[in-house]
Amino acid sequence: MKRRDLPTVYPAIDLQSHDSGYNPQRKRMLLKTNALVSPGNSTFAGLEPTDTPIITMQQTFLQRLWQRIRRFGFELYAFFTAPFVAKNLLGMIGLLTGLFLLTFWWLKCYTNHGESLQVPSYVGMSYREAARKAGARDFAVAVSDSLYVPGKPPGEVLSQNPRAESRVKEGRTIYFTVAKNNPDLIRLPDLSSGDDYDIYSRKLSRLGLKPRILARVPDPKLTNTIMAVLYRGDTITRKIARGFTVEMGGTVDFIVSEEVTLTVNIPDCRCQTLAAAKFLIQTSNLSVGSIIADGTITDEQNAYVYRQKPAFDPNGTMRVGEQIDLYITQQRPKDCEGQPE
To answer: Which residues on neighbouring strands pair with residue 292, listed in sequence order?
Structure first.
């Protein structure tokens, strides 16, 4: 008999050897599996006899895995639904919720959430007085900068941050800029022959100095050229090349040449804001001289001119380039009612 004619033997699954305990459901499953792998079943007609035990083992492994997953799910459900576990779980949730609310309440109290104070104006006060009044309202104070301003006493508060009438938290630090006693010394820019007064005066203005034309001399060739520089009555034209310093805010006088003598009408700067008065003077080919402020000034650019020197005269004239001194106050003068700004 040839090898290929030998009868094929299909191994059957022993119903007793797979489980020591009797399980009817398992028995029905194994009987069904034996029927599937029998030689007469056409489903496995194309498979080799040795492949059927592998398929049966794979099915049995998946069934066992599913049973373990279900058993784990039932145990997990039973654990969380147990009275002792549920009671402790609810207690932990309540404790965490209480801690969260307590932390939120503490932060609200610590930061004064939703509470603010209005900052008063301390400008114009001495630093000691401003610090005392700020401390009474639970504000801290600090000096952020100090500037020399002519006419301001040392220690006077020039500006503050945060600004007046703004709302801040209690305990906020207010930073002051105060006036100092001694002005800074500014070195004058180098001066060369033939320098134009307009250009050089703009340089001095940027440095915090006040250029002023003291006199004009006729010159047939040069126009608006610096002929001499004076400081406090002394001629310093040659000293500038060696590095001459003046106090910040000081006035530097110039003698300037002019080709012909020109005159313009005196503009009326009263009842104008400082910015408007400056523009009016400059468009009249004149220069802004000293600006004298009274004790009410808090915003210089929006202050009003209540006096000028020389005074306005409808028939009066000034030489081109001469200066007009302005006296300013914060509120618009009462005698300016009805006049255009």
So the answer is: 327
What are the φ/ψ torsions at residue 247 (nearest 5 degrees)?
A: -75, 140
Task: Specify the DSSP element, H or E, that contains 140.
Answer: strand 140-147
Tokens 């504000």 locate to 139
User: Which is higher by pLDDT, 288 or 61?
Assistant: 288
Q: Which amino acid, residue 40?
A: G
Which range has the worst mean pLDDT, 139-143, 293-297, 335-339?
Answer: 335-339
Show the domains of the chain with their CATH numbers. 117-179 (3.30.10.20), 185-336 (3.30.10.20)
Q: β-strand 323-329 against 304-309: which pairing, if any? A: antiparallel
The whole model's pTM is what?
Answer: 0.38
Q: How far apart, in whole angstroms, are the C-alpha atoms of residue 261 and residue 112?
A: 69
Distance of CA 2 to the CA centre of its chain: 98
CA dist 239 → 26, 196, 197, 235 (Å): 117, 19, 18, 8
